[in-house]
Amino acid sequence: MSDLVDLLREGLPEAAVVVDPDVTAAYRQDMAGFCESGAPAVLVFPDTVEQVRHVLRSATALRVPVVPQGARTGLSGGANAVDGCILLSLVRMNRILEIDPVNRIAVVEPGVVNAELSRAAGAHGLTYPPDPSSWESCTIGGNIGTASGGLCCVKYGTTSEYVLGLDVVLADGELLRTGRRTAKGVAGYDLTRLLVGSEGTLGVVVGATLALRPTPPPQLALAAEFPSTEAACAAVCAVMEAGYTPSLMELMDTVSVRAVNALAQMGLPDSTAALLLIAFDTLDPVADLAAAGEICTAHGATEVVPAADSAESELLLQARRLSLTAMDRLGTTMVDDVAVPRSALAAMISGVAEIAERFDLTIGVVAHAGDGNTHPVVVFDADDPDETARARESFDAIMALGLDLGGTITGEHGVGLLKRDWLARELGPVGLELQRRVKAAFDPLGLLNPGKVL
Ligand SMILES: Cc1cc2nc3c(=O)[nH]c(=O)nc-3n(C[C@H](O)[C@H](O)[C@H](O)COP(=O)(O)OP(=O)(O)OC[C@H]3O[C@@H](n4cnc5c(N)ncnc54)[C@H](O)[C@@H]3O)c2cc1C
To answer: Which residues form the FAD-binding PCMH-type domain (predicted)?
Structure first.
C-alpha cells in the first residue's frame, strides 16, 4: 500500500492522492446503493492527461486494479470500488477545451458536467442533445462510459450518436486517439463506438470530441391522462405510426406520479393510471401537439392538457426528471432499465404489473416510452430479508420478461455489477467469448474495472 501511494505521489500533487479511509469510503459507490462495493486502497484526482497516464503506469507496475469514476450517479454499480483498487476520479478534469460552431463540435475533458456543456454550446446557438435526467450532475466521461440516454432520445438518439473521437489512456498508460473531427470517416474499425458504453473496462477516457447540433426551437409539451398504461402505450405507437417525431415521449404510472407530487407538489393528476408527456420542438409545435392530442383522445385519454408555453412545458419535464429521486423516498429501490421494441411496450408494462402482484411488492414504472425503454422501480424494505429476496427475484423476472419480448436487459444504465450475470443470457456463448477476447486485447492483466460487465 505505501509502495503504491509513494509511486502515485511521484507523478501527482500530494493533495490529489487521498488515503484518508473516511474520504475514500465516501467514494466507494455509485447510486445503485444495494450493489456490493470493496474497500479502495487510494483515491486519486488527476487533473491532466499525463497524471492519468502516471496512475495507469503505476497500477500496471504494481498490478493494482483501477476503477474510473465520474460523478457516481450511475445506477448499475459500475463505478463501485473493488478491494485494494485505485479509485480514479476524473471530476477535476472538467474543462471545455473548444466549441467550434463551423464544424459543430465540442472538445471536452471527461469531468465536464453534461448540463454545463449544453449551456456552453447554447451560447453559440448549438446544443449537445443527450440529456440524462441526472444532467445537472453527471459527467461526459460517465455518459460515455455508460452510453447514456435521456429524455430526448426518441428524436435525437443517445450518447453513442454524438461521440466522434476519444482520447483514451490504456491500462499500460499508453495514450490512444480514436475517431475524428470530421463529419464523416470510416478509416479502420470503429474503436470509438466500441469504447462508448464500455463502462471503464477498456480504457480511461481523458478527452472527447463531440458532435453538436443547432439549437432547436423551444419545445412545447402536453400531458395526457389515461385510464390504463395499455391505452397510453397504444397512443405512443399510434403517434409514431402516424409519422410524427416528438422530441420527447415519456410515461409515468400512478406510483411515480404520486411520488413526484409527494416530493415536489407538482400538481400532477394523482388518480391517473398513466400520464403521457409528449413534446415537439418542430417549427409548428402547436399544430403537432394538437394532432398528437387527438391521437391520445382517440386511444382513450380522459384529459389532454397542452402546456401554455415553454416554461410550463419545462415544468412537466422537471416532474418527469424528478421521478427516480421521488421514488427513492418510498423505500429502498432497485431501478431496472429494460428496453423492448416500442410495439411491445404495453406487454412489458402489464407484465411488470403482474410481477409486482406475484411478488407482493410495489413496482413503479417510468418509461422513455418513445424508445420502449422502461424503468421499473422495485420498492422494498431492505431491513426485511424476505422482502429483499422477493425484490431481487422480481428484478430478475423483469429482465427475463424483457428478453422474452425481444428486448435488452439495459437500455442506458449499463451492466456494471448489477446485471453481469444476465449479460451472458443476452449475448449468448459466441458473443460473450468474443467480448472477453476484446477485453483481453485492451487490458491483458485485467486491471481496468475488474468484475464489471463481463
Ligand atoms: C436521478 C437519476 C436520473 C438518471 N437518469 C438517467 C437517464 O435519464 N438516462 C441515463 O442514461 N442515465 C440516467 N441516470 C444514470 C446516470 O446518471 C448515468 O449513467 C450517467 O451517465 C453516469 O454519469 P457519471 O458521471 O455519474 O458516471 P459514474 O456513475 O461515475 O460512472 C459510470 C460508468 O462510467 C465509467 N466511467 C466514468 N468516467 C469514466 C471515464 N472518464 N473513462 C472511462 N470510464 C468512465 C465508470 O467506471 C462507470 O462504469 C440517472 C441517475 C440518477 C441518479
So the answer is: 36-215
Q: What torsion, rounded to 10 degrees, do the Cα atoms 438, 443, 447, 453 define?
A: -20
Q: Which residues contact 139 (CB under 8 A, 6 or more apart)?
A: 70, 71, 90, 91, 94, 110, 111, 112, 113, 114
Domain extent for 23 = 2-89
Is residue 419 included in any domain, yes or no? no
Evaluate whether residue 329 is within a structural domain: yes
* Ligand 1 close to Cβ of residue 110 (< 6 A): yes
Instruction: Determine the Cα–Cα distance for residues 255 and 152; give it in Å rounded to an integer.
Output: 23
Q: Domain containing 331 — which CATH number?
A: 3.40.462.40
Whether residues 321 and 364 share a domain: the answer is yes
Q: If the chain, 454 residues long, is cut into consecutive pieces of 10 residues, what is the mean pLDDT of each piece?
A: 92 97 97 91 98 98 98 97 98 98 98 98 97 95 97 96 98 97 93 98 98 96 96 98 97 95 90 95 96 98 94 92 93 95 97 97 97 97 96 96 98 95 95 97 98 95
pLDDT of residue 232: 98
Do 260 and 352 belong to one domain? Answer: yes
Cα distance between residue 275 and residue 303, in whole Å: 10
Domain end point (choices 214, 246, 263): 214
In this structure, the answer to whether residues 323 and 233 fall within a common structural domain is yes
SS3 at position 296: helix
Q: Which of 214, 244, 262 is the last residue of a domain?
A: 214
Pocket test for ligand 1, best of 75, 191, 375 (most atoms within 8 A of CB): 75
Phi, psi of 391 (to 5 degrees): -60, -45
Task: Output the pLDDT for position 371.
Answer: 96
Model pLDDT, residue 271? 87
Q: How far is the CA of 260 from the centre of ligand 1 (A)?
A: 22
DSSP symbol at 454 = -
- Helical axes 420-442 vs 385-404, angle rounded to 10°: 70
Most ligand 1 atoms within 8 A of CB, residue of 44, 89, 137, 146 to mutate? 146
- Could you tell me if the CB of 324 is within 6 A of ligand 1? yes
The answer to whether residues 275 and 373 belong to one domain is yes
Ligand 1 atom nearest to CA at 159: 11
184 with 263, same domain? no
| Residue 201 beta carbon below 6 angstroms from any ligand 1 atom | no
Residue 422 counted as domain residue: no
pLDDT score for 228? 96
pLDDT of residue 272: 92
Q: Is the CB of 30 under 6 A from ligand 1?
A: yes
